[in-house]
Specification:
The complex is a heterodimer of chains A (about 110) and B (about 250).
Chain A lengths: L1 H28 L2 H11 L2 H24 L16 H23 L5
Helix pairs in contact in A: 1-2, 1-3
Chain B lengths: L4 E9 L9 E9 L5 H12 L18 E4 L2 E4 L11 E5 L6 E3 L2 E2 L2 H9 L21 H8 L9 H5 L1 H5 L6 H11 L7 H8 L13 H5 L6 H21 L6
Helix pairs in contact in B: 2-6, 6-7, 6-9, 7-9
Classes of the chains: A mainly alpha (about 110), B alpha+beta (about 250).
């Protein structure tokens, strides 16, 4: 029960992330000074620790999903046979790494 | 009795004729290093307190009778070593089941759930003996073999958070059994069972906690069966929209 409870508890972290995001977006609408102030607040160690916790939560949920998803695939769907579980695992992690790299590149301004 | 040490077992006791609620009773007993948890419970029953009630039979993880909560986790007590625990052990009846007495739980509802998934081979026409045997290749067997290894020990029901909240939930073992027959190449009852699986309190009540598979002593992986059954039930429903089924 412990892992499942932990999985459910990550919902609280996402709720708080939502509140932080709303606050940031709200300050963006309040003008450049409010925006600069909120950016400064986000450099506070408490906010950094909170976002580190959010990152750990997301990784935990992703790894849990990747562990459970392949075995939920039926043995066959009509004539189609899904790839073996290790291949499905590899595909999920490859997609995750690929999307992370692309998003990081966009956020860093390397592309677009 | 060489290498004997003592251990304290705290066991839930409940006599419906006397107790309003379950209570605990402590037993300090000598234990052997090679004992399983069941051996300790049997020792209490045989040597210390004959009034203790519990189920057991084969002692080799085949009959599925001796499931109990051991330190809060559902375990097949003939399979777990006493040496895996410290000097004190809490033994309770399986969670999520009504208690009949002490460590014995009511199984009737569980068996009714089993029957409801039609756990037998359904064919449109029964083969006559002279028509020969109904053959199955090793590859066809492999598709469902894992799900047929269930010993009905009920640990998965005890671990399932959905069963805890919705006792009417069909549950992991029954769904895994239905899925086992749906995957059987000799069976023609998939439409009937998928109709059951699309009903309330069945596969779509499962939140994929995976706890059933974590506690399964036979590696049946009921969580896989339940979630494969979800997809199959949806595919069967969608196919039925495009290609209407023949009447009964």
């Amino acid at each position: 029960m412990r892992l499942y409870t932990l999985f459910g508890a990550t919902g609280i972290v996402y709720l708080l992330v939502g509140f932080v995001a709303l606050r940031v977006v709200w300050n963006l609408g309040e003008g450049p000074e409010a925006w600069a102030a909120v950016l400064e607040q986000l450099e506070n160690p408490i906010y950094i620790a909170f976002h580190a916790l959010a990152l750990v939560s997301v990784v935990f949920v992703a790894v849990r999903f990747f562990r459970l998803f392949p075995k939920a695939q039926p043995a066959f769907i009509g004539p189609v046979v899904p790839p073996p579980r290790p291949i499905l695992h590899a595909m999920l992690y490859a997609a995750w790494i690929g999307i992370t790299v692309v998003l990081s590149a966009i956020l860093a301004g390397v592309i677009f | 009795m060489s290498d004997a040490k003592t251990m304290k077992l705290v066991i839930t006791r409940f006599d419906p004729d006397v107790d309003a609620v379950p209570r605990t009773q402590e037993y300090e007993i000598p234990v052997q290093p090679d004992w399983k948890v069941l051996d300790a419970v049997n020792f209490i029953k045989d040597e210390v307190d004959g009034t203790l009630s519990h189920r057991w039979s084969c002692r080799m993880a085949v009959c599925g009778s001796c499931g109990m909560m051991v330190n809060g986790e559902p375990k097949l007590t003939c399979k777990v070593a006493l040496s895996d625990y410290g000097d004190e052990l809490l033994i309770e009846p399986l969670a999520n089941f009504p208690v009949v007495r002490d460590l014995v739980v009511e199984m009737e509802g569980f068996m009714d759930k089993f029957k409801s998934v039609k756990p037998w081979i359904i064919t449109a026409k029964e083969m006559a003996a002279e028509e020969g045997t109904n053959r199955q290749s090793p590859a066809e067997l492999e598709v469902f073999k894992q799900f047929s290894m269930c010993i009905n020990c009920m640990l998965c029901y005890s671990a399932c958070p959905v069963v805890a909240n919705e006792p009417e939930f069909l549950g992991p073992a029954a769904i895994a059994l239905g899925h086992r027959y749906n995957m059987d190449s000799r069976d023609e009852g998939q439409a009937e069972r998928n109709e059951i699986f699309r009903g309330e309190g069945t596969v779509f009540s499962c939140s994929y906690a995976n706890e059933c598979s974590e506690v399964c002593p036979k590696n049946v992986d009921p969580a896989a069966a339940v979630n494969q059954a979800k997809l199959n039930a949806v595919i069967d429903w969608a196919t039925g929209l495009v290609i209407p089924r023949k009447g009964p």
